[in-house]
């Protein structure tokens, strides 16, 4: 029943399912298994960057452009830092209000901190829901420039890194690894001083570590924008479309690779979670782990032998032993 509704694009049914994903309801796997066959590989775009750089404002503008082309859009706002879910973040963090009345746009937020890499998992699950409900384009907004964000945007076809002038920390983060995942770089708030300099810095970093791009043939553009005034947003949109075209043409291998790596990491995460759940229950749950932690603190045990011991306890003995 619910599944049919989701497939018909019913907003309340989809919202309910995403809420259950966010709440870590283990039974949601049944629905997801059925929905998966109905996913059609919607185009997934990730927007990531430090708090307040203007991601939501930019996403809001990008939504309008996809809508003008007749595409339906799903948006997931991911917020691992917030203890609130749903309404609270929607109000505070998402500046996409003007799309709330539009049937073709569906906006939800996810705040799960989950169990083991839960946020990446629940993002992948929510993408399945939005895809199955028929959205053409799915936009994922993540706050931050750390490893979590890298993992999350791993599930995107096109990743947009947003920064602003004078954010030295961002530049360092980009240098340290985020560079690898950016398909386009946006220097937003270009009305502020130093935007051209920031763009130059990013470009020069890109040219230094250009190997990856030269081999794929895609050169990540660096674009200046002023999202509040809708300036430069056409360029951002065009760059997204160019990257999409690149992936379906020239970069087809790249697209297949991304798809593979996305499915691989999703499968790996799920498998890991199943195994850990099973193993934990066999060794007496999280409480018995805590007891071992006490032993390790007191040096009555060490994490190396303890983990091997746990493994043996969970899986080591054959049934007939
Ligand atoms: N001066 C200036 N302000 C901007 C620009 N774009 C967005 N802002 C403002 O920056 C603030 C933060 O914008 P958001 O779009 O909420 O930024 P965000 O990155 O989504 O923020 P979080 O989701 O909280 O991380 C808002 O007050 C926007 O109006 C811009 O181009 N120039
Ligand atoms: Mg935001």
Structure description:
With about 325 residues, this protein is of the alpha/beta class. It has one domain (about 1-250): 3-Layer(aba) Sandwich (Rossmann fold), CATH 3.40.50.300. The protein has 14 helices and seven strands. Strands 3-2-4-1-5-6-7 form a seven-stranded parallel β-sheet, sandwiched between helices. Helix 8 (about 170-175) links the parallel strand 5 and strand 6. The longest helix has about 30 residues, at about 250-280. The chain binds guanosine-5'-triphosphate and magnesium ion (MG). Magnesium ion (MG) binds near residues 56, 93, 94 and 141.
Radius of gyration equals 22 Å
CATH topology: Rossmann fold
Strand content: 5-15%
- Tell me about the biggest sheet? 7 strands, parallel
User: How many distinct beta strands?
Assistant: 7
What percentage of residues falls in helices of 4 or more residues? 40-55%
Bound molecules: guanosine-5'-triphosphate, magnesium ion
Number of domains: 1
Average predicted local confidence, pLDDT = 84
Looking at CATH, the homologous superfamily is P-loop containing nucleotide triphosphate hydrolases
In N-to-C order, the SSE pattern is: HHHEHEHEHEHEHEHHEHHHH
Could you say what the CATH architecture is? 3-Layer(aba) Sandwich
Structural class: alpha/beta
List keywords for this structure.
binds magnesium ion; 14 helices; alpha/beta; binds guanosine-5'-triphosphate; Rossmann fold; globular; 321 residues; 7 strands; 7-stranded parallel sheet; single chain
